[in-house]
TrEMBL record:
Name of one Pfam family that matches: Ku
NCBIfam families, per database record: Ku_bact (TIGR02772)
Ranges where the Ku domain occurs: 69-197
Organism name: Quadrisphaera granulorum
Keyword Translocase part of the UniProt annotation: no
One MF annotation (Gene Ontology) recorded for this entry: double-stranded DNA binding
Designated name of the protein: Non-homologous end joining protein Ku
Quaternary structure and partners: Homodimer. Interacts with LigD.
Keyword line: DNA damage, DNA recombination, DNA repair, DNA-binding
Family according to the record: Belongs to the prokaryotic Ku family.
Top-rank taxon, per record: Bacteria
Amino acid sequence: MGERGWWRPIGRRTLTSMRAIWKGAVSFGLVNVPVRVYAATGTKDVSFHQVHAADGGRIRYQRTCSVDGEPVAYGEIAKGYETDDGDLVVLSDADLAALPLTTGREIEVVEFVPEAQVDPLLYDKAYYLEPDRTAAKPYALLREALVQTERVAVVKVALRQRETLAVLRVRGQVICLQTVLWPDEVREPDFEVLSAAVTLKPAELAMAASLVESLAADFDPTQYTDGYREAVRVLVEEKIASGDVRRAPAMTEGAGGTDDDGEVVDLLAALRRSVERAQARRGEAPESA
């Protein structure tokens, strides 16, 4: 069946077809790596509009005040925090903009930790870091250092004017910025049934292990597809083919580079000074050159 209407299969998007959402630099020690940040994932869900079933008109929502029932312009809307006593604290955009939080264009490395120590439950959104052309070498240096030490970099970064905790980890040739949840955002399970003693027989454990082994495989996410999305696609194309469509009604208005040798010398010097600073903070004697 030919491709018609709004349904167009979308292939993998490359970085050249995506727009950077943030530009700044990774800072570790005295080394700065200028980078651009791209969203690593994107939803492929079918996009629907809410419409009036009778005539296909788009459904609109109007912001109204619950006190006087009058429409409210977007510029007149503020954020309100209600206390336990029922009092309301109103915060304007100016109030929030004045908060003393980091908003610089820097991804600050705080420490390097073993990757196995980061609970996957903490992982949130993923981004790709693309280095500037002049920063290819320090970028590769950071990437290979993470791979060889089997560690990730814990960083702080201000995305969309809000400080976020994240880690830098390696995926292939790319360094990924993976935001993580703050510790108090993760719920601890409290299932009473799990506290009860359970007796497992050796034969039961052996059979369960045998079942696991019989289904063991290397993980390949490309073999899985979204069955619901495919079913919706088929449904839409069947309606198009049968002529069960209508014309949508019109809506009413309502940094400079350096030569390669100089770059190597500067990078090594910055790394050496960074190591010396880290050793001094820990009370360690500096290594001899």
